[in-house]
């Protein structure tokens, strides 16, 4: 039976998961791929003297590069550098690259895809969005005969765990975060999760898959969940809604509205039922309707499943695979269109501004109790922001309805 | 640009949807497939004088067969005959076949796949399970590097609509069915839906995809929803459960437990949140964990999306596609193992049997009120059935917990 050689870059949680999967499921993998997979090198800064793979560990990327028996490099180091440099070097050396690293895909996907094409090899990244959930391959290979209207998703398990805790137990954001850290779902420095940065990278990737346009992640309107208050949870409850941090790419008339922000989801929205550390991606398309892909968005096993799964198209089709992402770099900032994005909004101000609010938001539904709560109609960001500026103070909350 | 010729067999709801999709989304389809798709023939018993496709309509299958410009035949007639004969003839004539017809896939999939292989063409059927939801392609192409422990799903929209009505509005089965018929979700003769036959065909197909074994559908343990009573809904509610008709294939120690039956699902099961006419398929695998695919399981547009989507692997890879179902016909009846299937069960008897029940189900949780309700522990079908036989009367209800 043919053998396919792989190198693992980064022997952490995911890299370790891949090595374990390749070992434990070798029979399934042989049947799946029609060939055996052998780990030829493992690159890490550390040694792993007690690992069954210790003899494969190297500290030199050049050794990996020079090893002609390595057909595919699996990059699971995370971060932009040296992941970027290693990816370029591996592709230039005629090796396929698989990655679980959303930062590097969102930042340089266009360059990698073009280079892979030039070198006649493959660049694949199913694990970069939604962990183990098959999202990227179905999006490229099963739905693009449709007119894609929107791709939206719960793309970050840490924030979804925190929001679920806030809704289920009435926890404050701070308490829920502490709990998530204690359980290992959030890192000591949780900024990339709670500020929406991680979800932003993922929606940027999904946007490229749905529209062929790769935007600069730094230009995508991104809000996190640090500002979500108990009062917002109570309001949402009173409307039979949940608050979820969504990445959304809405395609409308040749342009895109791309954003990461908390949204109020009615209970009949399938995304509203996604709880805890689970992720889900929903595609709205014509004539398909709504489809959703749901599962574990992180974790060693789930992510390893996606990394190893990407070997199938590489081994079966190689560069002949027509299911390639159309990563075309867009110079325009994604935020350029955002002012025209229309939505219904829940906005809260301190009651002392009630009089001003009633004047400026005249025509909207206004409730004055502990706070002065406004429910706007469908209205552009620009229009709402102009009104808020006229109040002369930042609102306590501003959350859009899905 | 290259052209790919197709013939549509059966110009009903789905066939019409395919023609409309190929027309309305021709730009998306060109980008997706890298070629144009042209309808060359439409086979139907009827004429369609007012259709824009009227000139393509023929009543003769031989004409379709003889048309060398037809590369792929899309069979959307439903039923076993003449779908079987037409499929065999088309494959023998060197044409690819795509179908949305679960009856013919479940019945003869092994024969078709083998014949397609022999003829160097493709046989594909994404639309046969879950309508528009990408299920079959992801199952074959994204998860089989895992050890698949179970595939289960809400595979029939009509019964899920009826059960949703019963839970949301307290409707009886009869009233909910009448409503489903009025809305066009259930046919005048709803037997294939409400008795579980349709779901049985689909779980038989999913079993083959997950295990490479094609069982005889007639040997799969199949219960419908006609026996679900208001009392069962109230019991489920009291336990924070929903009742859903599931198709399940559980792979355990080299054998399979395959069944279609109503199950009590706790509210944290993702399948419990699938309402109305929606379908969902959940895969439980190692190390992937649980993933779920959700969407519209029927309807012209969704089903047409899956049929047209199947053109991608045909055009891109043809018979070189390694993602092929391993339909190996199994002689053993699927029901052979069913007696050993273990589950917790809710069983109700009339109160007059309370004394007998307390003796025979001693050790189980028993509540006597309007009815005598038993909650068993994990127990095999055989063991429970023996106890029920000792009571000497059929129970009012017997529903398994997921």
Give a description of the structure.
2 copies of one chain form a homodimer. With 402 residues, chain A is an alpha/beta fold. Chain A folds into 3 domains: 3-134 and 302-324, Rossmann fold (3-Layer(aba) Sandwich), CATH 3.40.50.720; 136-295 and 331-338, Dihydrodipicolinate Reductase, domain 2; 341-401, Alpha-Beta Plaits. In chain A, 36% of the residues lie in helices and 26% in strands. Chain A has 15 helices and 20 strands. Chain A has helices at residues 13-24, 26-33, 61-66, 83-92, 102-119, 136-141, 157-169, 173-182, 191-194, 197-211, 230-238, 300-309, 311-317, 354-360, 381-391, and strands at 3-9, 36-43, 57-58, 72-75, 96-99, 123-124, 147-154, 213-214, 221-222, 241-252, 255-266, 278-286, 289-296, 328-329, 342-343, 345-350, 365-368, 371-375, 379-380, 397-401. In chain A, strands 7, 9, 10, 11, 12, 13, 16, 17, 18 and 20 form a 10-stranded mixed β-sheet that branches. In chain A, helix 4 (83-92) packs parallel to helix 5 and helix 7 packs across helix 8 (173-182). The model of chain A has no long low-confidence stretch (mean pLDDT 96). Chains A and B meet through helix 1, helix 2, helix 6, strand 12 and strand 13 of A and helix 1, helix 2, helix 6, strand 12 and strand 13 of B.
């Amino acid at each position: 039976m043919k053998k396919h050689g792989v190198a693992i870059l980064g022997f952490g949680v995911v890299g370790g998961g891949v090595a374990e999967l390749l070992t434990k499921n070798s029979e399934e993998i042989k049947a799946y791929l029609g060939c055996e997979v052998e780990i030829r090198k493992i690159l890490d800064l550390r040694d792993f003297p007690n690992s069954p793979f210790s003899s494969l560990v190297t500290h030199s990327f050049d050794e990996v590069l020079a090893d002609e028996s390595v057909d595919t490099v699996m990059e699971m180091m995370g971060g932009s550098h040296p992941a970027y440099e290693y990816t370029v070097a591996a592709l230039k050396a005629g090796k396929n690259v698989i990655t679980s690293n959303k930062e590097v895909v969102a930042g340089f996907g266009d360059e990698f895809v073009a280079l892979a094409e030039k070198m006649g090899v493959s660049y694949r990244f199913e694990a970069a969005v939604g962990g183990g959930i098959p999202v990227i391959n179905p999006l490229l290979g099963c739905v693009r005969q449709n007119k894609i209207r929107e791709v939206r998703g719960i793309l970050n398990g840490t924030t979804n765990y925190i929001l679920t805790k806030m809704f289920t137990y009435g926890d404050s954001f701070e308490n829920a975060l502490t709990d998530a850290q204690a359980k290992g779902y959030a890192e000591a420095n949780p900024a990339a999760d709670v500020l929406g940065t991680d979800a932003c990278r993922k929606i940027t990737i999904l946007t490229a898959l749905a529209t062929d346009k790769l935007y600069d992640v730094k230009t995508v309107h991104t809000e996190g969940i640090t500002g979500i208050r108990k009062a917002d949870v109570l309001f949402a409850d009173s409307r039979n809604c949940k608050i979820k941090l969504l990445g959304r790419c809405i395609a409308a008339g040749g342009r895109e509205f791309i954003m990461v922000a908390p949204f109020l989801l009615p209970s009949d929205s399938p995304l509203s039922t996604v709880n805890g550390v689970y992720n889900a991606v929903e595609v709205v398309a014509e004539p398909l309707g709504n489809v959703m892909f749901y599962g574990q968005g992180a974790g060693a096993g789930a992510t390893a499943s996606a990394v190893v799964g990407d070997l199938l198209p590489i081994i079966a089709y190689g560069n002949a695979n027509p299911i390639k992402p159309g990563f075309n770099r867009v110079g325009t900032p994604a935020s350029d269109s955002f002012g025209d994005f229309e939505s219904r909004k829940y906005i809260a101000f301190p009651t002392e501004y009630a009089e001003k609010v009633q004047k400026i938001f005249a025509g909207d539904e206004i409730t004055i109790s502990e706070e002065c709560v406004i429910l706007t109609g469908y209205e552009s960001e620009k229009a709402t922001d102009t009104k808020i500026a006229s109040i002369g103070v930042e609102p306590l909350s501003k959350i859009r309805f899905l």
